[in-house]
Amino acid sequence: DTGVSQNPRHKITKRGQNVTFRCDPISEHNRLYWYRQTLGQGPEFLTYFQNEAQLEKSRLLSDRFSAERPKGSFSTLEIQRTEQGDSAMYLCASSPGLAGGPGTQYFGPGTRLTVL
Amino acid sequence: AQSVTQLGSHVSVSEGALVLLRCNYSSSVPPYLFWYVQYPNQGLQLLLKYTSAATLVKGINGFEAEFKKSETSFHLTKPSAHMSDAAEYFCAVSYSGNTPLVFGKGTRLSVIA
């Protein structure tokens, strides 16, 4: 069990640029989640996948955001035309899914995005 | 809809003193409840979870929490604080462990020597 990994750990970009983050879940975990955490706040849900299917998207996920999980393995979160308000920590988590019973979400270290 | 309220954005205790971090939840169905800890610039680590079994849940690092349905509470306690406990603590609620978590705003715990 190597844990959830996220890359890059830090990203600094200029307003208007596109950025992409990657998340590698714990192997054999079929659910994968993205959350966003701003300073002084708890994480807020963005979207999640069961294998390659995107099951739910939060209203926080504007049309500038897109997430994919091809082949049900790693996932990418892309933000187009970044805005300063997108500056946050983006957290990825995975869980075993229904087969694992009540389940526990295991979090990665996060990607900190700074938009200048 | 589900929600979590954590009372006190900052709690300060002396080393060796009791730690009590408060969490109240709102849920239309029997909830699953979680406590996570976050150290600076790191992700979240699970401390413990309640999944409708025993109401007193023991977690890692000496923490425990008690589910009280009548009070809609899930407070986190530790008998004796250690300097290494200084961190941000988040309470979260979910319909199950496999559905999105709804987090509280967090409580920052400081431990004074």
Q: Helix share of residues of chain A?
A: under 10%
Largest sheet of chain A: 7 strands, mixed
**Quaternary state, please?**
heterodimer
| Low-confidence blocks of residues of chain A | none
Q: How far apart lie the N and C ends of chain B?
A: 41 Å
Q: Report the β-strand fraction of chain A as a percent range.
A: over 45%
Total helices of chain B: the number is 0
Q: In total, how many beta strands of chain A?
A: 11
Strand content of chain B: over 45%
| Largest sheet report of chain B | 6 strands, mixed
Q: What gross morphology of chain B would you assign? A: globular
Structure description:
- The complex is a heterodimer of chains A (116) and B (113).
- Chain A is mostly beta strands.
- Chain A has no helices and eleven strands.
- In chain A, the strands form two sheets. In chain A, strands 2, 4, 5, 6, 9, 10 and 11 form a seven-stranded mixed β-sheet that branches. A four-stranded antiparallel β-sheet of chain A has the order 1-3-8-7, with no helix packed on it.
- Chain A is globular and about 40 Å long.
- With 113 residues, chain B is mostly beta strands.
- In chain B, 39% of the residues are buried.
- In chain B, the strands form two sheets. In chain B, strands 2, 4, 5, 9, 10 and 11 form a six-stranded mixed β-sheet that branches. A five-stranded antiparallel β-sheet of chain B has the order 1-3-8-7-6, with no helix packed on it.
- The interface between A and B is medium-sized, with 32 and 25 residues.
Summary of the model, kept short:
The complex is a heterodimer of chains A (116) and B (113). With 116 residues, chain A is mainly beta.
List keywords for this structure.
heterodimer, A: 116 residues, mainly beta, 4-stranded antiparallel β-sheet, 0% helix, B: 113 residues, 6-stranded mixed β-sheet, 5-stranded antiparallel β-sheet, 11 strands, 55% strand
